[in-house]
Design a protein that fits this description.
heterodimer; A: 291 residues; mainly alpha; 2-methylcitrate dehydratase PrpD; 13 helices; B: 221 residues; alpha+beta; 60s Ribosomal Protein L30, Chain: A; Alpha-Beta Plaits; four-stranded antiparallel β-sheet; 11 strands
């Protein structure tokens, strides 16, 4: 990897006079020894897989535990009536985020972005933006490169695994990736993309990973909505001209520190927080009896 | 990390470690056995044992043993598929000392009667490590073509293997040696930068003092 920070990426973009996404693609070409066209085509494959997973959602599917499934359909029907307070775009984003995360819990095919548990965030905002704002496919794939570059930096400087950094490392990272991608689609350049990463991630710092029964279901499925909606509102804030006081790389480092210091019981062990509430313990013991 | 480890992989949910990694453990183990499996006893350990059912770890490992990859949407139905293909599957609890929390022990018997025991761990993000083969230490990630040679601990076997690779112009990426005691059973594990031809593997199998040769090819089965 030719860069270790978002600042590095911005500097390369400036020196070579290319946009953010091309810096990321150029690095992929060098790392994997592929042509720019091959790299682009591979990213397009990832987007097609997201699109297909969204289309193949089934409202009647239930996870093995029975805790996840059906909520995407409820949201879809509600949003269809046009009464939802958050408006048509957020309505689409919410339902797509829940659907993808439910499909994941039900052992359907998804695209980890950056993880399986946070797989709903990025497709929810990109698929909704493409369909509602008539955005060309080419731009969407470019935005995916932006997202991937942001994820690389977070993985390099902090973590993208709940077991090492809590949920901030999964939903937080996914949200930062989606916020940067959306900001690019709204016409943002390097400084705006970095501000979007900083603001979206700051909003989710400290988020714990304490899932019920150790499963990627509760609270993970609905938390994908938070990550996706946070990305949308952040992109709007940044496009309005709002900047982050703390630079993005410093926010990422803070997230890394918080993750390292976070007690183990909040890092995917299901030994604390939501996972040990009376209701969660009851569900967990019923599940282990079922096995 | 590669960008397609960030946006990707395409996989069957719900967990990259408990599902995608588990499929890969099965897939790699089947390739190490080198033939279709008749019978397999799968022992789960740690978090695999505790939350494996809910994550589909059991079905994921069986899917891999049938030759499926982590993005195969037949993964959830692998038990039915195993029955159809007459692969007998049983499960148990593994008792291990100081193992990675996501570990599985696979005791396989192939259609020709060949047997192999693999201990493997899922490290996160769909990446895995093969920890032991037939009770001897191994330590490789199955991200390179890998040669595993079990031999008597006596002088010359390392030279035989490395000369063969040199002759075939195959570069060695990493190399490890283990033994259970002086003059006892030894194992060498070589991760290579390109595939080793089949006749070279066959040649190794016939050498005196070589007990078993296992090869992991990156080419799809």
């Amino acid at each position: 990897m030719a860069y270790k920070s978002l600042e590095d990426i911005c500097n390369i973009a400036k020196q070579e006079n290319i946009p953010f996404w091309e810096v990321i693609r150029g690095d992929d070409c060098r790392e994997r020894q592929v042509s720019p066209e091959e790299s682009f085509a591979m990213m397009e494959q990832m987007y097609l897989a997201m699109e297909k997973a969204d289309q193949k959602y089934r409202g009647d599917q239930k996870s093995h535990s029975g805790m996840a499934g059906g909520d995407g359909k409820l949201l879809e029907e509600y949003v269809k009536q046009g009464k939802n307070l958050s408006g048509p775009f957020i309505g689409q984003v919410m339902q797509r985020a829940v659907k993808m995360a439910e499909s994941n819990a039900c052992m359907r095919r998804i695209v980890a972005a950056p993880t399986a548990g946070s797989c709903g965030v990025l497709p929810a905002v990109l698929l909704s933006y493409e369909s509602q704002y008539d955005c060309p496919r080419q731009k969407i794939i470019e935005a995916l490169f932006v997202a991937a570059g942001i994820g690389q930096i977070i993985a390099e400087r902090a973590s993208i695994a709940g077991a090492s950094g809590g949920c901030q490392a999964e939903i937080g990272s996914a949200s930062a990736m989606a916020a940067g991608a959306l900001t690019y689609l709204l016409g943002g350049k390097e400084p705006e993309i970095c501000s979007a990463v900083a603001i979206s991630l700051k909003g989710l710092l400290g988020l714990t990973c304490d899932p019920i029964g150790g499963l990627v279901e509760v609270p993970c499925v609905k938390r994908n909505v938070i990550g996706a909606v946070n990305a949308v509102t952040t992109a709007d804030m940044v496009t309005a001209g709002i900047q982050s006081v703390i630079p993005a790389d410093e926010v990422i480092d803070a997230m890394g520190e918080i993750g390292r210091e976070m007690p183990k019981r909040y890092r995917e062990t299901s030994e604390g927080g939501l996972a040990v509430t009376p209701t969660a313990l009851k569900i967990a013991s019923e599940l282990s009896e079922k096995e | 990390m590669n960008i397609f480890d960030i946006v990707g992989p395409v996989m069957v949910g719900p967990s990259s470690s408990h599902t995608a990694g588990a499929v890969k453990i099965g897939y790699v183990s089947r390739k190490l056995l080198g033939e279709n499996i008749r019978e397999v006893h799968i022992l789960l350990y740690g978090s695999f044992l505790a939350t494996g059912r809910g994550h589909g770890t059991d079905r994921a490992i069986v899917a891999g043993l049938l030759g499926m990859l982590p993005d195969d949407d037949r993964v959830p139905y692998s038990m039915e598929e195993a029955e159809k293909q007459n692969m007998k599957v049983t499960f148990g609890e593994a008792v291990l000392k100081e193992a990675h929390p996501n570990t599985a022990v696979l005791q396989m018997k192939g259609e020709s009667g060949r047997e192999l025991e693999v201990v493997a761990a899922s490290l996160g993000g769909g990446r895995i490590k093969i920890c032991m083969i037939d009770g001897l230490d191994a330590n490789f990630t199955a991200e390179h073509p890998t040669l595993i040679v079990h031999n008597q601990d006596q002088p010359g076997h390392v030279a035989e293997v490395t000369s063969m690779l040199s002759h075939k112009a195959i570069n060695i990426a990493t190399m490890q040696l283990y033994r259970d005691g002086r003059g006892g059973n030894a194992v060498m594990i070589l991760e290579c930068d390109k595939e080793i031809p089949e006749e070279a593997i066959k040649w190794l199998k016939h050498l005196e003092g070589v007990n078993k040769v296992t090869y992991y090819s990156m080419e799809e089965a």
